[in-house]
Specification:
This protein has 6 helices and no strands. It is mostly helical and 166 residues long. The model has no long low-confidence stretch (mean pLDDT 78).
Length: 166
């Protein structure tokens, strides 16, 4: 264990008070020059004093703190109250997507038959359109359904953004 100098605290107190070395006794200055612990105490106390001078501490008033805490509590209550609504909106959106997919799945054969009928009438009246119509008829119905699903997703996103702005 390293022994402590009995004058170390006295020297540190003088530095903190701003009285070192001008307002101290000559024998104390001579002691500090010969004592490593006291020199270290002076160095550390001066560094701490310098750090304290550069630090500007702004403590808000009690009214400001009360207001901030009240606003924070209100926001937390609002978020807690909105949480079930957000969950229900997500469930409703999933149900809506399920309904749209079911309707599109049920309309797939009808749309395929309608496309074949339109293709037959177009090729009967305009024989030059046969290659383009033939390609359109060969497109599988799942591509048509995927396209319809993309359109529904884009439309619902546009409606959401439109409503969210208001």
């Amino acid at each position: 264990m390293v022994p402590e100098c009995r004058r170390e605290f006295e020297v540190a107190a003088l530095v903190r008070a701003g009285r070192w070395p001008a307002a101290c006794e000559p024998d104390l200055r001579a002691h500090v020059e010969g004592c490593a612990e006291c020199r270290e105490a002076v160095t550390i106390a001066e560094l701490l004093l310098e750090a304290d001078r550069g630090a500007e501490v702004h403590v808000p008033s009690a009214a400001q703190m009360w207001w901030r805490l009240a606003v924070r509590a209100r926001l937390e209550r609002e978020q807690a109250a909105a949480r079930p609504v957000v969950w229900l909106q997500g469930i409703a959106a999933a149900c809506g997507v399920g309904v749209v997919l079911t309707v599109l799945g049920q309309l797939g054969p009808v749309l395929g038959g309608a496309a074949a009928l339109v293709a037959h009438r177009v090729t009967a009246s305009v024989p030059a359109a046969l290659p383009a119509v033939d390609l359109a008829v060969r497109v599988p119905s799942f591509v048509v359904l995927a396209g319809a699903l993309v359109l529904v997703a884009l439309a619902s996103t546009a409606v959401y953004l439109w409503v969210a702005d208001e």
